[in-house]
Amino acid sequence: MIKLVGSLCVLLAGGSVWWLQRQERRRRRQVLAELAAALERMETSIRLNRTPLLPLFRQAARGRCHEVSQLFERSAAALAAGRSPEIVWCQTVSCLPVSETDKRALSELVNALQGDETSACKGILLARKELQNSLSQLEKQRPDEEKRAAALCFSAAALLVILLI
Questions:
Q1: pLDDT tens across 50-103, in order?
Q2: Neighbouring C-beta atoms of residue 126, cutoff 10 Å
Q3: pTM of the predicted model as reported, rounded to 2 decimal places
Q4: Rounded to whole angstroms, how far apart are CA atoms 73 and 60?
Q5: In Å, how far from its chain's centre is CA 98?
Q6: How far is CA 16 from CA 2, 147, 162, in A?
Q7: What single-letter DSSP state applies at residue 98?
Q8: Helix extents (H) in 50-116
Q9: Which of 76, 109, 140, 149 has its CA 20 to 30 A from that of 6?
């Protein structure tokens, strides 16, 4: 009876690891999609309305997931306090669950945003394209990653169950 309970616990642990990994990959895709959407909206707002940086950050923060909203809110707070948003932006970008190339593209974006309309729009476009490319790659790899993760987690759990019995 104890071996059966132990086996069940090991299988549940393997399932939990698989589920957590799946949620993390989903969260990463969501952050990339929301960052790309926020940047697209920022670019449109700059081109059409010539919106200044502070209201632009506040607009971009509205209705986004926690990580993306936090990036824009912290940058807006730094601007409102009269400081350059560069340091806050880079610190917040480093905490995002995205790849290093995406972090680098976002870190370079803050310098372009402080320039004129043309440089800001070009910087946003470059960063958005980088994020969209990363998102499309993640979507292409998604079925294979999910199969591999499920196979690994449940195979390891099954091996432990066999060893336990």
A1: 888 889 999 999 999 999 999 999 999 988 998 888 888 889 999 899 999 999
A2: 15
A3: 0.85
A4: 9
A5: 5
A6: 21, 15, 19
A7: S
A8: 53-61, 66-80, 86-94, 100-113
A9: 149
